[in-house]
Design goal:
Strand content: 15-25%
CATH topology of the largest domain: FAD/NAD(P)-binding domain
CATH superfamily of the largest domain: FAD/NAD(P)-binding domain
Mean pLDDT: 93
Shape: globular
CATH class of the largest domain: Alpha Beta
Bound molecules: NADP nicotinamide-adenine-dinucleotide phosphate
Number of helices: 13
Amino acid sequence: MTGTQETIVIVGTGFSGLGMAIRLKQAGIENFILLEQAAEVGGTWRANHYPGAACDVPSPVYSFSFEPNPAWTRVFAPQAEILAYLKHCADKYQIRPHIHFHSRVESASFDETSGLWTVHIDGQKPRVCRFLIMASGGLSRPAYPDIAGWKDFKGPLFHTAEWRHDVPLRGQRVAVIGTGASAIQVVPELAKEVAELKVFQRTPAWILPKEDGPLPRRGQARNWLLRKFLYWQFEMRAIALLRPKLMRYGQRMAEDYLQEEVKDPQLREKLRPKYIMGCKRVLLSNDFYKTLQEPQTQLVIEGIERITARGIQTRDGVEHEVDAVVCATGFQVAEATAPFHITGRQGQVLSELWKDGAQAYLGSTVHGFPNFFFIVGPNSGLGHNSIVFIIESQVQYILGALRQTLKQGWKSVEVRKEIQDTFNETVQKNFKHTVWTREHCRSWYQTPSGKNTTIWPGFSFTFRLRTLLFNAAAYHCLDPDAEKEMAQPQFNALHSR
Ligand code: NAP
C-alpha cells in the first residue's frame, strides 16, 4: 500500500466536516485531514448561491452550539451570511491547515490485514488512514430531471445548485422547473428582473408564511435563551409529523394563507396540495404566492413532455418558448447509494449493499465497514428542526468511538450486524403511523420502492440521547494483533432499538 498516512480522513468541509474537525482539535487529536473537492469551505452553503438562497431554519439554531453567531442580521439568514459563518469557524479554530482543497475523492477501500483505509483522490497520490469519516452531505449531488430532449435546448440550462452568474437573465424569458424549497426562494428574485417567468409545477407544496425580519444584536445570555426557545418551538412540530391527525391544524393555517394570498380561485386550486402536510418539506415564504400573480409570471401545471430547441413542451402540446431554463429539481438523495465507490471488509461494495435502500446504525456506522463513519447518513435527516443539531450529535458519537478505539488500542470498530438490523427494523416500524406513510405521500426521502431511508422518524432530542455515548458493546472491537474480538460488556438491549 502506497500513499501518505494520516490517522483520520474527513471528506467534506460543510457543517459536518468542519464540526468534526473542530471537535477533534478540541479533544487534542491533530492528526487528521479534510478532503474538499472545491476551493473553499462551506459545503451546501458554498454550492447553493442562487439568487434568494437563504435558510428556512431560524439562524440562532442554525449554528454550532459552541460557536453562537451574534452577527446574524435576520431571523432566517441569507446564504452569504451562513457561508461567512462557516469560513469564520474554519479560521477561528485553525482548521484550514488541515484542509486539502481541489481534492475530489474517487473511491475508498478497506484493507483487512493492515486495518487501514486507502482513499483515492482524482489526480493525486492516494491517502491512507485508520479512520474515514464521510461528511460529504446529503444534498451535494444535484438531480437534473429525467426529461427527454436536454441536448436539444439551444440556450443556457442549469441547476439552482450550479448557478450560472455569467448568464444574464435580465429581460429574458426564463423557465423554472420545480416548486420545492429552492424554487420558492429563487422564483421571487428572478421575477424582479426577467421579462417572462414560467414556473413548471409537478406537485404543489404546503407553504406557510416566513416569520422573517431583522435580528437585533443581543448579549450571550439572550442569544442562548433565544436558541433554546426556537429549538423547542421547532421540535414541537415533530408531534404533528408523528401524529398525523394533528396535522390538520397546520394544514388549516396553510389553507388560510393560500386563501388570503391568492385571489384567483383557479390559480388557488392549482396551488392546493393533495397530500398530507409534512410528507415533503413544509416551505416558508412571504413572496412566492404574490410573485405567481405578477403579470410577467405564469404557473404551468400541464406536465412536461420534453425540452425542445426553443423551450419546454407540455403534455397539452403547447411549446413554451424561453431563453433559459433553471432546474430547481433537488438532489440525488434516497435513490443514490454512496457518494463514491466504497469497498469495505471482504470486498463488500457499499452501493451494492445499499441498492434496495441505504441503512446504517444511528446514521453513522455500517456493518462490514470498520473504522468508517457517516455524518448525516441514512435515516438521520430532519423534516422539522435544525440539521446542525443532528450533526453535532453524530460528531459527539464519532468522537467517542475514536477516543475509545485509540485509548484501548483496538485495531478496528465495526457495528454488529444484528444491532444494525434491529435498529433499522425499529426505525422502519416507527414510520408506521407518521405522515410519511400516509396515502399519496411520495418524496425524495423514499427509494423507488417507497422505503424511507432519509428521515429520522422521531424527535431530534431522542436522536441526541441515543448518540450521547458510544456504546462499544454494539460493535466488534478488534484486538490489534490476534484479530480476535475484545471482551465486551453485556449489550444493553435498549441501545439496539
Ligand atoms: P426538492 O424539494 O426536491 O424540490 C424539487 C422540485 O422539483 C419539486 O417541486 C419536484 O416536484 C420538482 N421536480 C423534480 N423533478 C421534476 C420533473 N422531472 N419534472 C417536473 N418537476 C420536477 O429540491 P430543492 O427545492 O432543491 O430542496 C431540496 C432540499 O434542500 C430541501 O428539502 C431542503 O432540505 C434543502 N433546502 C433547504 C433550504 C433552506 O432554506 N434551508 C433551501 C433550499 C433547499 P415533485 O414534488 O413532484 O417531486
